[in-house]
Amino acid sequence: MTFHLSTSAEILQELGVRLREQRLAQSLTQRELAQMAGLSLGALRKLESDGQCSLETLVRVAQALGLLEALDDLFVLKRQSIAQMEQVDLVSRRQRAPRKKAS
């Protein structure tokens, strides 16, 4: 599944399914993974069933499953051309509003 044309609910559900598959591939029960991640069993069940969780819960589960590398490229700024790099550089520089002249 690609996320490009998916709704946020579909993306969340797919992430829950993928994490469940990772857990099963490692022969872990929900209870074992919840303990490893320092989460309640209910929080893990909710994550796997519909993807609903806090960002901290997602990170804890990914860490417990050894999947932190999968997060490395998440939201990394992709620069594709010199013009785009220059534009990002211009935007990232701190700019101040011009001072008002005293009348």
Automatic annotation (TrEMBL):
One of its GO terms (molecular function) is DNA binding. Residues 19-71 form the HTH cro/C1-type domain. SUPFAM superfamilies: lambda repressor-like DNA-binding domains. Coiled coil: none annotated. CDD domains: HTH_XRE. This is HTH cro/C1-type domain-containing protein. It comes from bioreactor metagenome.
